[in-house]
Amino acid sequence: MRRADRLVQILLLLRGRRRTTARQLAEWLEVTPRTVYRDMADLMASGAPLNSEAGEGYWLEAGFTPPAVAFSARELAALEVGARMLAAWADRDTAAAAQSALGRIHAVLGSSGLPPEPLYAPTAGNYPRERLAPLRDAIVSHQALWVDYRDENGRDSQRALLPLALFFWGDRWLLAAWCGLRLDYRSFRVDRLQSWRDTNLSCPPDVSLAGYLGHVDSDGRALAWLERHQRQPWHQE
């Protein structure tokens, strides 16, 4: 990353945060804390409204608006591919938002601003994408569901679930959940959910996405992924 880009990135990372240490910034930017200290000194010397306190970190004064973000050609291509995949496989609201964002990029750059991207995502056809939005809402609100589920052999069952996450596996979505019937973590294909409604489910207090990943992941790679994801600067609790 060029130094000028890094300085802008620091301002973006600090925006909306109460305190951020040099060590945190160094980890996110993949530089040394010493480099962060130099960058901070340069930003302050240039008039950026930065405050700092020993042991507490850095923060921006309220009301400061960082400069506009500029993307490289590869970053823009990645955004376009991501938008195409969401348009094909996400719920309708998310797909529409992705298409809208991509349309804004094209509108700003013009027809010659975005290089042709050869990666495409075929349309999902009659995939039941309308099921994704309510499941996502249940995950965010920690709402348990009573579901009717049909397994691969056509057998129906009813059970209470606490949804934890949705995972996309190339041609289908899986719902990670705590299952009140099995009293354990389970995965459920979204296209096999026949119906659901809100319900109350008493489950162990330590039920979590990390617990689910530890249950299904034998070599620890998924847990390592979750830990990295939650350390990323764009991940907000």
UniProtKB/TrEMBL annotation:
It comes from Chromobacterium rhizoryzae. It comes from the Bacteria. PROSITE patterns: HTH_DEOR_2 (PS51000), WYL (PS52050). This is YafY family transcriptional regulator. One of its GO terms (molecular function) is DNA-binding transcription factor activity. InterPro entries: CBASS_pafABC_assoc_protein, DeoR_HTH, HTH_11, WH-like_DNA-bd_sf, WH_DNA-bd_sf, WYL_dom. The keyword Coiled coil does not apply. Residues 3-58 form the HTH deoR-type domain. Keywords: Transcription, Transcription regulation.
